[in-house]
Amino acid sequence: MIVEGLGEMGSLAERIRLGDSAAETELVRQFSQRLFVMGLVRTRDREAARDLVQDILLAVITALRKGQLLDQDKLAAFVHGTARNIISNHLRSRAQAPRFEPLRDDLAQTHSNHEIEEAERSRLVGDVLGGMRRQDREILHMTLVEGKKPGEIAIALGLTAEVVRTRKLRASKRIAALLERKLSRR
């Protein structure tokens, strides 16, 4: 069934918006293999790719049910864009997850000098960060800890991405210079 005035993809999107479960099944049939290949190429992990296909299709169907696709003839582009975003989020979160490796016996012994130096470096970094403007600290935190891109930070802070990049660079240089001065005084 093709809804009058819409192409095949637009008709499929409209049928899903209207609650046609057969249209949802058709969407899954048409896109599952392509999404799996896309996920597999990007993640190099078959299980992750299978899980991502489910996440992508669920997100697409939910959005279509809510009527969030404005140009229904661009369903394939909408599915592809949703897939790209979900896979990128998966890769970003996987990269930020700590890797757990068993500690070798020779490394398990603590070295108090190393711990003292590490604590001193942490204290120095804290002192330097404490002397920075709040927004510069936020930019560094969002970049280094949260892994956000300049565009995301710009939206969150009401700045342009270029301003975020510039302030991040200046703050990083300021930290490096201050740390170098403090460490050279020893």
Classified by CATH, the class of the largest domain is Mainly Alpha
Helical run tally: 9
CATH A-level architecture of the largest domain: Orthogonal Bundle
Please name the fourth-level CATH homologous superfamily of the largest domain.
RNA polymerase sigma factor, region 2, helix turn helix motif
H/E order of the elements? HHHHHHHHH
How many separate structural domains? 2
The percentage helix is over 70%
Tell me what portion of residues adopts beta-strand conformation.
under 5%
Indicate the low-confidence ranges by residue numbers.
1-5
Mean pLDDT: 85
Radius of gyration: 24 Å
Q: Overall 3D geometry?
A: elongated
The major sheet is characterized as: none
Structural class: mainly alpha
Number of strand elements: 0
Summarize the structure.
The chain has 186 residues and is mainly α.
What does this protein structure show overall?
The structure is a single chain. The chain is mostly helical and 186 residues long. It folds into two domains: 89 residues, Rna Polymerase Sigma Factor, Chain: A, CATH 1.10.1740.10; 59 residues, Arc Repressor Mutant, subunit A (Orthogonal Bundle), CATH 1.10.10.10. Helices cover 76% and strands 0% of the residues. α2 crosses α4 and α8 packs across α9. The longest helix has 24 residues.
Q: Any descriptors?
A:
Rna Polymerase Sigma Factor, Chain: A; elongated; Arc Repressor Mutant, subunit A; disordered N terminus; single chain; mainly alpha; 0% strand
